[in-house]
Structure formats: C-alpha cells, structure tokens
Specification:
Layout: H1 17-30, H2 42-45, H3 52-61, H4 65-70, H5 72-75, E1 85-86, H6 96-105, E2 113-114, H7 123-126, H8 136-151, H9 162-173
Parallel strand pairs: 1-2
Length: about 170
C-alpha cells in the first residue's frame, strides 16, 4: 500500500555502474518513477564549505556522472532524476551560513535535491554510531531558519517531492 516515489542508496552507492544499472532495471520493472542523482553540480562544489579532502572525493566520484546519465532509463527519462544533489560537500558542515550560500547559488532552472541530516541529538540517536550525530541539531536549526527566509523572496525555488518530480519529468519528455 505504499506509493514509492523514488529510490536512493546508502552512501549514494548507485553512482557506481555495477549498482546503478541493475537498480535502474528493477525500478523500471517495479514502476518506481525516480532515483536520486547522487552527483553534486559544479556550481555547488566551488563553494568554500568543504575541505580539500572532501572536494577531491567528490571530484573522483563525479567521474561516474556521465555513465549514470547514459543509463537508458535515465537518458530516455523513463526514470526521473534531478540535475544533482546539493550539500554533499557540506556534510557535517551544513550550518546557517553554508546553507544560505548553497541556496543563493541555485540556478533558476532545474531541479536539485538538498541532502541534509537534521534531527535531535537524543538518547535514541546516542545509541547509533554516526559521525553526524553532533551536527544534526545545527542542520535542523539552519533548515528552519534559512529555508523559510529563502522561500519568502520573490522567484524563490519551489519545494517539491520526488512524486512531483517524476510527473513533471514525464510531462516534459512527452
């Protein structure tokens, strides 16, 4: 009874062709209309919120971008996706200033996903081993402050969910 709008993978492993290709075939057969585009666009990578090591990691992984976009279900738009994922380079550093910088660089055209890990650093989270535990409340505060301010501006980005992305993408391709 669940309407699945999209698929992504832990740590974006579907960026590797050996994972992405069979996953996309499953999505087509199952009628799942969209998948996360795990690649950070160049405009976002150029921002100063990531250290050298993180920028190099993203540059290396982005070498798989062309292969991802050439997968038949993506290229033919049978499976919808965005133009990229924002915030990958800011993982662990997504505070108010960083989020404001990211939001101010989004192009007026295209769809982009913002990756973030907001939440409360409570007893349940304390039982999980994650390097992002201490930053979750900072990200939540940034989202609750920056996003409403950005959306209040004229010609602001629109918030959508993957179900709408898939419907919009299919309308554009027909």
């Amino acid at each position: 009874g669940i309407a699945i709008t999209h698929v992504d993978t832990h740590k974006h492993t579907h960026l590797f062709p050996r994972v992405g290709r069979p996953l996309l075939n499953v999505l087509e057969r199952a009628g799942i209309p969209a998948i996360r585009n795990p690649f950070e666009p160049e405009f976002s990578q150029r921002l100063a919120h990531a250290g050298l090591k993180r920028r190099l990691q993203i540059r290396i992984l982005n070498q798989f971008r062309a292969a991802f976009e050439r997968h038949t279900p993506i290229h033919s738009r049978n499976i919808a996706t965005t133009q990229g994922t924002l915030g990958v380079s800011a993982t662990g550093n997504l505070n108010r200033a960083t989020l404001t910088e990211i939001m101010n660089t989004i192009p007026p055209e295209g769809s982009f996903e913002l990756v973030c890990h907001p939440g409360y650093n409570d007893a349940d989270l304390a039982r999980v081993a994650t390097r992002l535990r201490n930053h979750r409340e900072i990200e939540m505060e940034a989202l609750l402050t920056v996003i409403p301010a950005v959306l209040a501006k004229p010609n602001s980005p629109q918030l959508i969910h993957y179900g709408k992305l898939a419907a919009t993408d299919r309308t554009l391709s027909s």
